[in-house]
């Protein structure tokens, strides 16, 4: 609404920049949803324009000039309006006054929650400005240092060849590049949607199909495990992203609604067949025959938050081709 007011405003030249900024930021947000943060400034400005127009209109509705005031002497002091004066409000003003009261009530209701919103924004800003992979956790008796993530990247740096390639979801790409000093298949700067979808296909496909692809791309697979926001919890979204390009992950199901956890917490049949689920339960399941000869678990962190698997039977031809190109 603020953009519409801005277009038809008498100051549209001055505020057209914010409308253009909103359009451009929205265009890139459609390409990558997290870029919607760039639209925060134009949205705030245009929302302020919209609220300002509403308040101006409401104020105009409850204040109007006295028809006889123009004939009053200039030095005459205004009289205090009595209740009788207010009872002579023109009937045509009633709809506008009702509108004004609604606007005033809405603005006051928003103002009462402004301090809560400010506190929420401040806490979020502090939390997001200090990302960390080493943190303290209270186990019920004392605080313990959780160092699983840094430890896993250090293990990769010390125990894998310098030219090792690591397959993981793109969230951990920068960690692998900077902390482990190893090549990741994708990171936060990967704009190729098909590239991201291919990694998702490697994680969400059955083991035999997944290994047939991964052996040409990577030497190791890194997974966040241990529950909470681990890769298995993200897997329904990973499957949906991949299914937009490779529709054989969830056949005849564009939203991958069948790739999920059931109400009792158990995995659906599609999730249970996935490589991600099989690797997540490596060693816990009695049937690991499908993983034998394809993947080997080589590292598990202290609190089992990270697991690293070695890809067996890696295609040397594909690796040499990648190094040449």
From TrEMBL:
Pathway: Protein modification; protein glycosylation
Database matches in InterPro entries: Oligo_trans_STT3, STT3-PglB_core
Molecular function terms, GO-annotated: metal ion binding; oligosaccharyl transferase activity
A Pfam family reported for this protein in Swiss-Prot or TrEMBL: STT3-PglB_core
GO cellular component, one term: endomembrane system
Subcellular location per the Swiss-Prot or TrEMBL entry: Endomembrane system
Domain STT3/PglB/AglB core positions: 165-220
Family: Belongs to the STT3 family.
Cofactor: Mn(2+); Mg(2+)
Organism expressing this protein natively: Paramoeba aestuarina
Membrane topology according to the record: Multi-pass membrane protein
Name of the molecule in the record: STT3/PglB/AglB core domain-containing protein
Keyword Magnesium included in the entry's annotation: yes
Keywords of the record: Glycosyltransferase, Magnesium, Manganese, Membrane, Metal-binding, Transferase, Transmembrane, Transmembrane helix
Main location: membrane
């Amino acid at each position: 609404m603020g953009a519409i007011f801005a277009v038809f405003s008498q100051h549209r030249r001055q505020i057209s920049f914010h409308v253009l900024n909103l359009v451009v930021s929205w265009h890139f947000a459609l390409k990558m949803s997290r870029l919607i943060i760039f639209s925060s400034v134009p949205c705030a400005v245009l929302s302020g324009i919209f609220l300002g127009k509403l308040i101006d209109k409401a104020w105009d509705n409850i204040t109007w000039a006295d028809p006889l005031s123009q004939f009053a002497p200039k030095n005459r002091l205004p009289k205090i309006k009595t209740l009788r004066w207010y009872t002579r409000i023109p009937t045509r003003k009633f709809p506008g006054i009702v509108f004004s009261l609604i606007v005033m009530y809405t603005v006051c209701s928003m103002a009462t929650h402004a301090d809560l919103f400010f506190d929420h924004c401040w806490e979020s800003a502090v939390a997001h400005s200090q990302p960390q992979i080493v943190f303290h956790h209270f186990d019920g008796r004392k605080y313990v240092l959780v160092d699983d993530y840094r430890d896993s990247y250090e293990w990769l740096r010390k125990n894998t060849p310098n030219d090792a390639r690591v397959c993981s979801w793109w969230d951990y790409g920068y960690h692998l590049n900077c902390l482990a000093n190893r090549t990741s298949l994708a990171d936060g700067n990967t704009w190729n949607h098909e590239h991201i979808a291919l990694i998702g296909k490697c994680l969400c496909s059955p083991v035999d199909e997944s290994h047939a692809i991964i052996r040409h791309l990577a030497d190791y697979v890194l997974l966040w495990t241990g529950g909470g926001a681990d890769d298995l919890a993200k897997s329904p979204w990973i499957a949906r992203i991949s299914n937009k390009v490779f529709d054989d992950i969830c056949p005849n199901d564009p939203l991958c609604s069948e790739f999920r956890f059931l109400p009792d917490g158990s995995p659906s049949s599609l999730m249970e067949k996935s490589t991600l689920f099989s690797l997540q339960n490596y060693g816990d399941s009695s049937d690991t025959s499908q993983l034998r000869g394809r993947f080997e678990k080589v590292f598990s962190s202290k609190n089992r938050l990270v697991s690293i698997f070695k890809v067996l039977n890696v295609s040397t031809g594909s690796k040499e081709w990648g190094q040449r190109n």
